[in-house]
């Protein structure tokens, strides 16, 4: 700092300072600080309590009402809770819809992330795509749902769902719901993949170029394998969102009690047909839906919660995987 | 924008260019789809706005009656009924979202600080996965607990007979109320914010808070004045994300905050909190069966358009806020 190197005059003797309280104790803190810390503790404990209450409550209700037979029997239309069957179809619906939505979202999301992070030319287009993805992330799923209904009821998309007499397209099917579900998973996949690609140091790319690989094969052979962890996390997060979404299911899947295949073709028929998922099953069996079957709703919500916990656990497992050598 | 080594890679053959074009086309296609969505929703919603003008945003009349009039309007397109004064819905949306956001921000900042600095290790190890789990719990589960536990509790224990009588000619109080709506919504969005803010506080360089501590400030002050300030862009981002979730929350709110388009009146005193209200998103869900009736569908799309505009403004406002903070703080993404 100082370029002047003259010797300062000897400072007048300083009286020895009183020993400062350097302990980490909070006795010396001002009242405001103590209140602040107290409130932080209170907030933390409140969070614990609420979380514990929710998890415990669902656990108790779930164990109380869930019967194994419900997991393997079809739901039946009945006003009486004891006759309304299980929720095999909603479970199947959740699985089908999640797989379908992820299968659509993953390649698109990874592609967009790679383009944004590795090419991004022209830059105005890249910026526009970036804000576009952000817009999708901020769009309520209910808006996506009714937009999807509007789109898929056009006769052009008639091949994706039921077609009634007079060519009125129903617009509600696993295909259409899955397509819209992929939009809510998309931003998560794009975000996580981009982050993973960002964290790869540029010398890794340069090493690959130096070995004579072009960019396309660098992406395929070096960058994508190295960002597997991020991609996996993004996809799992996206699955979590799809599993938990209700609005799109209620509006775009028809929320019919059982899976109703559109025709007899084994897989395609089901995908073109309507169904329900655990979320819509819970919604419809709660007092807010038409059916007053709270026990069924609790049991299904418990299964749903277990799926979500499992997905969360999967994210942890992915995060624990081995990192590429340059990050260690 | 990182364009890693764009110049030192000479494409040897066409595959590289093809990959770039293909990926670019994919990105553009998604962009087009989004633009298409916006145009589609707005063009569909336009008649409802055009017929009402600014009165659309005003109050007056009963929204549910207006909706059923629109639903039952004559088949002749010239006679379609469009009258809609959506103020109660807008008001309910703003009220429930705003109050929940305030509560959630306060709680999440405090508990993020708690987790980062004050929590005992054991508690921290439990809290973090729990927060992440809570952030991932589907809203319908929150709604279920709300409608089966909180709503009956409020309806039977909190609301007095006197309160029910005092407004019985206006509205029925059965427990579905803005109180439950706000509570459940707060529980829903707080974990999202806690997760983001905790990460941001962790990312504040240790040396910054240590610098503050070296100047003789205690742990709380150091965290509040240095940590929180450095984390501001992340806090804004968290708030934007939480607000987006709150605005768009349809199913849960339609379950717990009542299915009556009623504008709770603050003049009712305490009763105000136990009056029902219905947000825009919940209205869309509740009326989705009627979408095929043309004027009715257009009205519903008008609600959706308002939601869409609000979420634009939200991300734009968040972006502006982060830009203005960028100079002073950690680089925000």
Describe this structure in words.
The complex is a heterodimer of chains A (328) and B (333). Chain A is an all-alpha fold and 328 residues long. Chain A contains 13 helices and no strands. Chain A has a single domain, classed as MetI-like fold, CATH 1.10.3720. Helices cover 64% and strands 0% of the residues of chain A. The longest helix of chain A is centred in the first third of the chain and has 35 residues, at 31-65. Chain A starts with 30 loop residues before the first helix and ends in a 9-residue tail after the last helix. The mean pLDDT of chain A is 83. Chain B is an all-alpha fold. The longest helix of chain B has 39 residues, at 14-52. The model of chain B is unreliable at 1-11 (pLDDT under 50). Chains A and B meet through helix 1, helix 3, helix 4, helix 5 and helix 7 of A and helix 1, helix 3, helix 4, helix 5 and helix 7 of B.
Describe the protein's topology.
The complex is a heterodimer of chains A (328) and B (333).
Chain A: H1 31-65, H2 68-72, H3 88-119, H4 123-138, H5 141-152, H6 174-198, H7 202-210, H8 215-226, H9 228-244, H10 247-252, H11 266-272, H12 278-285, H13 294-319
Helix pairs in contact in A: 1-13, 3-6, 3-9, 3-12, 4-6, 5-6, 6-9, 7-8, 9-13, 12-13
Chain B: H1 14-52, H2 63-71, H3 87-118, H4 121-136, H5 139-158, H6 161-166, H7 178-203, H8 206-214, H9 219-230, H10 232-248, H11 251-256, H12 280-286, H13 294-326
Helix pairs in contact in B: 1-13, 3-7, 3-10, 4-7, 5-7, 7-10, 8-9, 10-13, 12-13
């Amino acid at each position: 700092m100082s370029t002047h190197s003259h010797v300062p005059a000897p400072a007048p003797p300083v009286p020895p300072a009183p020993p400062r309280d350097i302990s980490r104790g909070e006795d010396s803190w001002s009242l405001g600080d103590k209140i602040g810390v107290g409130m932080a503790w209170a907030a933390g404990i409140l969070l614990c309590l609420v979380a514990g209450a929710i998890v415990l409550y669902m656990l108790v209700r779930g164990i109380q009402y869930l019967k194994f037979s419900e997991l393997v029997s079809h739901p039946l239309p009945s006003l009486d809770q004891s006759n309304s069957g299980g929720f095999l179809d909603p479970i199947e619906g959740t699985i089908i819809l999640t797989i379908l939505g992820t299968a659509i979202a993953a390649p698109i999301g990874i592609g967009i992330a790679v383009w944004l992070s590795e090419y991004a030319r022209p830059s105005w287009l890249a910026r526009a795509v970036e804000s576009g993805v952000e817009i999708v992330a901020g769009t309520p799923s209910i808006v996506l749902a009714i937009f999807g209904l509007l789109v898929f009821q056009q006769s052009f998309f008639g091949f994706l769902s039921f077609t009634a007499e007079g060519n009125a397209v129903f617009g509600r099917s696993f295909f259409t719901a899955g397509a819209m579900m992929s939009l809510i998973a998309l931003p998560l996949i794009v975000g996580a993949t981009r982050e993973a690609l960002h964290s790869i140091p540029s010398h890794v790319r340069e090493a690959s170029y130096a070995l004579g690989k072009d960019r396309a094969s660098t992406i395929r052979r070096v960058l994508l394998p190295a960002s597997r962890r991020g991609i996996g996390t993004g996809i799992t997060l996206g699955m979590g969102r799809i599993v938990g979404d209700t609005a799109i299911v209620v509006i775009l899947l028809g929320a019919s009690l059982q899976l109703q295949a559109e025709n007899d073709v084994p897989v395609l028929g089901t995908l073109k047909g309507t169904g329900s998922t655990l979320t819509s099953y819970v919604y419809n069996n709660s007092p807010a839906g038409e059916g007053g079957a709270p026990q069924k709703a609790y049991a299904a919500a418990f299964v749903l919660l277990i799926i979500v916990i499992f997905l969360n656990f999967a994210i942890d497992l992915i995060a624990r995987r081995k990192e590429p050598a340059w990050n260690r | 924008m990182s364009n890693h080594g764009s110049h030192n890679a000479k494409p040897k053959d066409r595959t590289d260019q093809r990959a770039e074009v293909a990926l670019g086309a994919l990105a553009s296609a998604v962009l087009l789809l989004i633009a298409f969505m916006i145009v589609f929703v707005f063009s569909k919603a336009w008649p409802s706005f055009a017929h009402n003008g600014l009165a659309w945003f005003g109050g007056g009349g009963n929204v549910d009656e207006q909706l059923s009039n629109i639903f039952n309007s004559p088949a002749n397109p010239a006679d379609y009924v469009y009258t809609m004064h959506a103020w109660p819905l807008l008001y309910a949306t703003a009220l429930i979202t705003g109050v929940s956001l305030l509560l959630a921000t306060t709680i999440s900042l405090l508990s993020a600080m708690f987790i980062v600095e004050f929590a005992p290790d054991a508690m921290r190890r439990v809290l973090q996965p729990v927060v992440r789990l809570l952030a991932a719990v589907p809203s319908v589960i929150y709604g279920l607990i709300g409608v089966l536990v909180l709503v009956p509790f409020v309806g039977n224990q909190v609301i007095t007979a006197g309160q029910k009588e005092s407004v019985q000619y206006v509205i029925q109080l059965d427990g579905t109320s803005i109180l439950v709506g706000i509570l459940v919504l707060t529980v829903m969005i707080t974990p999202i914010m806690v997760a983001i803010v905790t990460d941001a506080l962790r990312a504040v360089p240790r040396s910054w808070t240590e610098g503050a501590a070296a100047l003789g400030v205690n742990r709380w002050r150091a965290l509040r004045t240095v940590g929180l300030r450095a984390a501001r862009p992340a806090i804004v981002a968290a708030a934007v994300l939480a607000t987006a979730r709150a605005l768009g929350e349809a199913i849960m709110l339609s379950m717990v905050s009542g299915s009556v388009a009623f504008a709770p009146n603050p003049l009712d005193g305490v009763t105000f909190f136990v009056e029902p209200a219905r947000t825009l998103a919940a209205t869309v869900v509740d009326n989705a069966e009627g979408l095929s009736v043309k004027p009715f569908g257009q009205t519903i799309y008008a609600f959706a358009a308002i939601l869409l505009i609000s979420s634009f403004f939200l991300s734009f406002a968040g972006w502006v806020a982060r830009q203005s903070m960028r100079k002073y703080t950690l680089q925000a993404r």
